[in-house]
Amino acid sequence: MKKYTEQAKLLVVEDYCSGSAGHREVAHRHGVNASSLRKWIAAYQALGAAGLKSKRKKNYSPEFKLNVLQRMREEELSYRQVAALFDIRKSDIIGEWERRYDEGGLEALSRQPGSGLHKKMTNPTPSIQLESPDDEARTRDDLLAELSQLRMEIAYFKKARCLGSSEGTSSAAEKAQIVIELRQEHPLEGLLKLAGLARSTFYYQQKVQQSVDKYAVLKTRICSIFDEHKGRYGYRRITAAVRRAGHLVNHKTVQRLMGELQLKSRVRIKKYRAYRGEEGQVAPNLLKRKFDAKRPNQKWVTDVTEFRVGGQKLYLSPILDLYNGEIIAFKTARRPLFDMVGAMLRQAFERLRQRDKPILHSDQGWQYRMPIYRRVLNERAVKPSMSRKGNCYDNAAMESFFGTLKSEFFYLNKFNSLDELEAGIEDYIHYYNHSRIRLKLSGLSPVEYRTQARRA
């Protein structure tokens, strides 16, 4: 702990006493602990500049300790206030004196720490009045008050043992719990004094213990959606899904709650490259990064990616409709031959109507530069479009789907064979089209968006 000179303490205290700011701001301004500042202020107000002098460890007599406790209880002072008043080095030692006196009287104050009296007592001794008048002069009311006090103390220590806490080490929450359970039988003021709790501290702890997590239902819903989609959703999609379920919630709240629940979506991107250099014919870039379409079958994008399982490879070739992000056709194969691309095209052409003449955008992979590829497209009036060489952003929509597929499906699972992976890809694409919501589609899945637009 950093030590401060008397001049440094005086400078900080005078800054506070000038009224320019509160405890925390003054402490932050001078780089000191706010609790230390409060202790300095109390000492300065009680003893002036002399109270800020460095204090050496002292051995206090039992009579001095008793005088401190009497003054504290008579004037209802805090530990910090009475420490400043009597120029005591550490205020927390006064709490130890009070506990020892309540357990063992004046004799306990004369014992040094570690002498054995601090251990948990099987039969705690009720606290003794600081001033004991002659028994014959005491009235019936005095005796009843003392009896009530003794019963309250016995009940308090008994409850503390039941809760498994030691009288000297109980936290504020444990003390508040004991007071809550006993306040129906004993006066609150006496219980708080016995527990050493401020009234404000007690009511704060009571509020905390009785409060209900207002986000409990929302947390359950978030976990359910996260598990339903196998960890593929981040906080934005979960927010959209929660709103669809009828919860009005801000995305920042969902993000914070997911952090508390330790729910996090993982994203990794890995792509297949099929460029073999200058061969075949290159088509112009008709798409020009305009990844929006006003109607279905207006703009398509395609590419090929690979997966590795047990030293073997599986290739996927899909076509994505930029109108709603739906995968309208796909084929998988163990080798990246043109037959895979040709079968994918035939599947996609089944969705075309007589008036549809879409643009099919791809990179400059060798499959798309073959004469047969251009011939197949010309037969169905489909215009080929290709990205510029070495520029993956021209086909960002397709690359984004591959990244999503691998981060939400491939990297989250283990596969024993290519057949298992192939079946999983088919299931995921069905999920991607029919169930997985997209924020840009107003929280609808691609198929839901296309169906609603058709009805409208």
Concise overview:
With 456 residues, the chain is α/β, with parallel strands linked by helices.
Proportion of residues in β-strands: 5-15%
* Rg calc: 39 Å
* The CATH top-level class label of the largest domain: Alpha Beta
pLDDT < 50 runs, ≥5 residues: 116-133
User: In which range does the helix fraction lie?
Assistant: 40-55%
**How many domains make up the coordinates?**
4
- Helix tally equals 18
Protein name: IS3 family transposase
GO biological process, one term: DNA integration
Domain Integrase catalytic: 292-454
Region (Disordered): 108-135
Summarize this structure as a short list of keywords or feature phrases.
single chain, 6 strands, six-stranded mixed β-sheet, 456 residues, 4 domains, alpha/beta, 18 helices
Question: Topology of this structure?
Answer:
Elements: H1 6-17, H2 23-30, H3 34-47, H4 62-75, H5 79-85, H6 92-110, H7 140-162, H8 172-182, H9 188-195, H10 199-210, H11 216-228, H12 235-244, H13 251-260, E1 299-302, E2 305-309, E3 312-321, E4 326-333, H14 338-349, E5 359-362, H15 371-379, E6 383-386, H16 396-410, H17 418-434, H18 446-455
Describe the structure.
The protein has 456 residues and is of the alpha/beta class. It has four domains: 6-110, no CATH class; 138-210, no CATH class; 216-260; 299-455, Nucleotidyltransferase, domain 5. 49% of the residues lie in helices and 8% in strands. The protein has 18 helices and six strands. Strands 1, 2, 3, 4, 5 and 6 form a six-stranded mixed β-sheet that branches. The longest helix has 23 residues, at 140-162. The radius of gyration is 39 Å and the shape is elongated. Residues 116-133 have low confidence and may be disordered. One of its GO terms (molecular function) is transposase activity. Residues 292-454 form the Integrase catalytic domain. Residues 108-135 are annotated as: Disordered.
